[in-house]
Each structure stands twice: as structure tokens, then as C-alpha cells.
Amino acid sequence: MTSITRRGLLGAAATLPLAAPALAAFPEQPIRVVVPWNAGGLADVVIRALAPAMSGPLGQPVVIENRPGANGAVGTQAVARAAPDGHTLILANAETHAINPLIYPKLAYNPVSDFTPVTLIARGPFVLLTRPGFGTDSLDSFLARVRAEPGKVTFASWGIGSTSHLAMESLIKQAKLQMLHVPFTGAAPASTALAAGQVDAMFLNAGPAEAIARDGKVRILGVGAPERIPLLPETPTMAELGQPVSAGNWFGLLAPARLVMPIAERLSAVAAEGLKVPAVLNVFRSQAALPVTTRPEEMRSFIAEDRANWANVVRDLNIQLE
């Protein structure tokens, strides 16, 4: 993780004397982090673990507000319109700042000009799951059944154009399959439907997937990561199984545009320290979430690169929404 020292932070503030009073007074009230997804998903879990570790150093509560809708666009748009004083942040991910701009021609926010990057906090791989009683115990048998019932096997996601949706569409294209997409409003309701047998398969974050698989409610077939992960050491990667689908997501904090850089740097530094707290790390490990932090400008570059990568996927799949 990137380390930001107190001396370096104060030095940065000294180069911006007009911003120094704002930094000295910040924060003046609780900091609100908008999670543009339902409660219970990985995004919600990781930020709720990190929030208490940030509250102490900041001297103000860090409160979480769930505002789901439109593949994360509803909550993201609300933050874009908030005051740029550091007291309102968005927990962004690939959907909100890389994919939505590619699939929604009338998106109500600009992912670049409407936000000030703060820091990444986590990255995490997806796994491919099947419902209880689906009758397949390997990726090969899963593919065979889908091919035997073209267009009848269903898969869940947390929205059209979500990373979960695009991951499955990538497998469908690569393996020449036909499946029926059933979008939900979030990862939690989608995985609940899978565990209840209402849909047949989905790509889900590895941590929540391991929790429901542990109870025997679903079966994990493969990991969409370059290598096996510690949480599921016996589960092969999709590449090992002959279908190299890369599937995962990232999570990070952004503020409205025009936030002064010393405040963005301070928030980044506090998040970095929070990710060293053992209790926070334990939650992240249990969710197969890799803690990762960046300086604000590093995060800006990361998002731009991620958007370029997803542009290739969206173009190949020809996904466009109103």
C-alpha cells in the first residue's frame, strides 16, 4: 500500500496557503460515504469495516448511506452534486466510473470532471457459482449443460452492464453459449436468489461466495483471477480450467470536483492508515478483498486505464443502454 507521511502531507499543504485554513478546519462535521448499492454486498461490507478506523483520526464519525439504483448511477450522481468540502464521498467502483460512461449515453454525471479522486481501498476477484441442485460439479459439466439447453439456463447479476453481467457475457462469448440474463438491484439480492434456486448461475465476489458455499447452498466452479486465492486455495482459476475469463472489481473513494488537494490527500492518508488496523484487515481477508491505497493522482490514472480496458469489452459485446 502507498504510504503517505505526515511531513509530506503538511508540506503539500504549505504549497497551497489558500487551502491551509480549510485543511486546518477539516472535518467540521460527520463525513458521509454514499454506497450506490444495496446493503450487504462486498462494497458495503468493506467500507463499513474501514469507516470506524477512519473516524478516530478524523475526529468525526464516518457514516455510510446506501443509495442504490441504475447500476450505481443514482448515488454517484448525488455525490457529484454535493458540496466539494470533503464531507461527502462516493464509494466508487468499476461500474460507476469505468463502465457506466461507456453504456449510458445520457449519464447524468461525468466520471472525470465531476469528481476528485481520493484513494483506492480494495480490489477483489469474482468466482463462478451455480445454484443448489443444478447438477454440475465442474466447469466442463456446467458448459455441457448450458450447451444442451441453449437459452434456458439463467444467470444473475447486480444489473445490466455491471461487472458481474459483463464477466458472464465474456464467458458466454468465449465458450459460444446461450444463456438468459436475470438482473437484480444489487449483489446481495442476486446471490440470495441464486442460493434459493431461483436462478442457475452467476459471477460473484469471492468472499460472499465462499460464505454461502460453505453452507452448501451453492457450488463454486472457478476463480476469475490470474492465480488461486488464499480464501479458496483448492479452487482452480478459470484459466486453469481452459476458460481464461478475468473477472473482478475495485472499490475506492472519490469526492465532488473542486475539492482542495490537501483535504483529498488527508483523506487518502487516513484511509491508508485505517487499512493497517488488524480488525479491518481481518474483514478484508474474509471477503477476499485485497487492501490497496493510492494517492489521488494515482487513482485518477488507474480509473482512466480501467475505463479503457472495459471499453474493449463493452464494444465487443455491443452493450448500450438508454
From TrEMBL:
Q: Which Pfam families does the UniProt entry name for this protein?
A: TctC
Keywords, A to Z? Receptor, Signal
Q: Which residues form the signal peptide?
A: 1-24
**InterPro entries to which the protein is assigned, alphabetical:** BUG, Bug_dom1
Q: Does the keyword Coiled coil apply?
A: no
The regions listed as transmembrane in this protein's record are none
> The organism sits in which domain of life?
Bacteria
Keyword hit for Signal: yes
Q: Which family does it belong to?
A: Belongs to the UPF0065 (bug) family.
Q: What name has this protein been given in UniProt?
A: Tripartite-type tricarboxylate transporter receptor subunit TctC
Organism this protein belongs to: Muricoccus pecuniae
